[in-house]
Automatic annotation (TrEMBL):
This is Aldehyde dehydrogenase. InterPro entries: Ald_DH/histidinol_DH (IPR016161), Ald_DH_C (IPR016163), Ald_DH_CS_GLU (IPR029510), Ald_DH_N (IPR016162), Aldehyde_DH_dom (IPR015590), Aldehyde_DH_NAD(P) (IPR012394). The active site is at 224. The keyword DNA repair does not apply. Keywords: Oxidoreductase. It comes from the Bacteria. Belongs to the aldehyde dehydrogenase family. Transmembrane segments: none annotated.
Length: 508
């Protein structure tokens, strides 16, 4: 029976101060270092089993806390997180294993290794749009890497006790992952307590504040920030499927996804039929909360986000855009924003420039491949994108030219569906990669190790420096970097001479 040290998890912000939580996490890191990756994987499997068996009650909690539809909660949060955890369990041992790497001929007789060591205490600062998925995927990756973890959920979707309940099924894991509730001020205090690395997921505005704060303390940070994702549709697509993809990409999670489609670029020759079909598909959407799994679009999670969306819509209308909405005029308290398609937009509109994060999408015609690449790349954001065309050569060409962290070809938001793929942005969408091999290694520091034998031999580059050695090193450079067949003969000759000279003392 395993005995785990440190198990006091902060139940709320009042029991333990941020400083104490970091200290507690540091202690649990020290005490729990002895546990192997095999033992850690076994703990994660318990978590998977708990979530699998309790998925309906977890879905209840998620829909209540966020207002999202049951299907969004079940698929994007629960299925998404289980997929990631399962992939981590199958791959963590290989990814974190010490690796032997090539040792060059000049270091003959040695062996070289890379160890992936945990940082210590990882601080996860989490947003409100996917509160379960983001918390668990990163926390468990960090735990598997050998770290202790502190999760600070968003103050808007704390779901008190849910994470602790999930973790309690796995005692070692529960002793390594600590949850502390609170707002941005608690987040700042946690940073002040100097965790060993911060993983921040949230808005670009907050991300910049955290980068400034952490830089003062020289704490490394990975930042997954906002987006204004484009979907690029060329004229040769299957219209019906592409319209269905665009609609889901724009409206899933009521548009509150960092990678949801906000700008729908359609090649001019199919713009009108595309828009007609899109509107028809919109009219079929079921908008609801408290559903049994049969509603398509849920509510906006916070009042302030609903206000931002409304501000973008009002600004667009004022500046001449055409808005097409479906659904009833809904009371402000329900936070149900009607799905909206916006056409006739221009660069001056907030809805084109800023992240809207709602069930609204701007449709914009374009003419050529060059034009669309230029348009997309002038955005300050670069999270993900999608390119739709039957001509795969063209789709790949465009996907390579886009300055984004991910591109789905002939599909939407799909890179996130494969746990083996890295996730993260460029430009103001952040840096660092979560998920996949890179995502797991991001929770580790690489340590370089080289092993030599115990012998009486001195290295050629050690003292004494002599004129003879100097000449031999010149010959060594010539031999090492020449491109012809004489290389190995020359190397053997000069290597032998250097070796002999190296064992001599000055004056020998
Ligand atoms: P936010 O930036 O307002 O808050 C995120 C977290 O940061 C919260 O837990 C908050 O309490 C905390 N926080 C706020 N100020 C802080 C400070 N000064 N120091 C430390 N912590 C602080 O973001 P949000 O509104 O919760 O989430 C929506 C945003 O997240 C959108 O912009 C969305 O695009 C982005 N997002 C990005 C990704 C991604 O992977 N790129 C994923 C999901 C969401």
């Amino acid at each position: 029976m395993l005995k785990y040290s440190s198990s006091t998890t902060a139940q709320d912000g009042t029991t333990l101060s941020p400083d104490q939580v970091i200290q507690q996490a540091r202690q649990s890191f020290q005490h729990n270092q002895i546990y192997s990756i095999k033992q850690r994987i076994a703990e994660v499997k318990r978590v998977i089993e708990y979530i699998r068996l309790n998925r309906e009650s977890i879905t209840d909690e998620l829909t209540q806390a966020t207002g999202k539809t049951r299907t969004d909660a079940l698929v994007s949060e629960i299925l998404g997180v289980l997929d990631n955890l399962h992939w981590n369990c199958s791959n963590a041992k290989r990814i974190f294993a010490e690796k032997k790497v090539h040792t060059p001929i000049t270091l003959l007789g040695k062996s070289s290794h890379i160890r992936h060591e945990p940082y210590g205490v990882i601080l996860l600062i989490v947003p409100w749009n996917y509160p379960l998925h983001i918390s668990l995927t990163f926390a468990i990756g960090a735990f598997l890497a050998g770290n202790s973890v502190i999760i600070k959920p968003s103050e808007h979707t704390p779901m008190p006790g849910l994470l602790e309940r999930i973790f309690s099924t796995a005692p070692l894991l529960a002793s390594c992952i600590h949850v502390i509730y609170g707002d941005g001020a608690i987040g700042q205090q946690l940073i002040d307590a100097r965790p060993d690395k911060i993983f921040f997921t949230g808005s670009t505005v907050t991300g910049k504040k955290i980068l400034r704060h952490a830089s003062e303390l020289v704490v490394p940070v990975d930042v997954e920030l906002g987006g204004k994702d484009p979907m690029i549709v060329f004229e040769d697509v299957n219209l019906q499927r592409t319209v269905a993809g665009a609609l889901w990409g724009a409206m899933t999670n009521a548009g509150q996804s960092c990678t949801s489609v906000e700008l729908l670029y359609i090649q001019r020759s199919i713009f009108t039929p595309f828009i007609t079909q899109f509107k028809q598909a919109m009219e079929q959407l079921v908008i609801n909360t408290g559903d049994q799994g049969n509603a398509d679009v849920g509510a906006i999670t916070t009042n302030f986000q609903a206000e931002i969306i409304q501000e973008h819509l009002d600004d667009a209308k004022r500046k001449g855009a055409t808005l097409f909405s479906v659904g009833q005029a809904i009371s402000a308290s329900s936070r149900l924003i009607p799905p909206t398609l916006i056409t006739d937009v221009n660069e001056d509109m907030l809805i084109v420039q800023e992240e809207t994060f709602g069930p609204v999408v701007c449709a914009i015609p374009f003419d050529s491949e060059d034009e669309i690449i230029r348009l997309v790349n002038q955005s300050p954001y670069g999270l993900s994108a999608s390119v739709w065309s039957k001509d795969l050569k063209r789709a790949k060409r465009v996907s390579h030219a886009l300055q984004t962290g991910a591109v789905s070809i002939n599909n939407v938001m799909l890179t996130e569906g494969n746990p083996a793929l890295p996730f993260g942005g460029v430009k103001e969408s952040g840096f660092g990669r979560g998920k996949g091999e890179e995502g797991l290694l991001a929770f580790t520091r690489s340590k370089a190790i080289i092993i030599d034998k115990q012998s009486g031999k001195k290295e050629p580059n050690w003292y004494p420096y002599t004129l003879k050695k100097y000449q031999l090193f010149g010959e060594l450079i010539d031999a090492l970097f020449r491109q012809d067949w004489l290389k190995y003969i020359k190397l053997a000759l000069v290597g032998g001479k250097l070796e002999k000279t190296s064992q001599q003392n000055r004056g020998d």
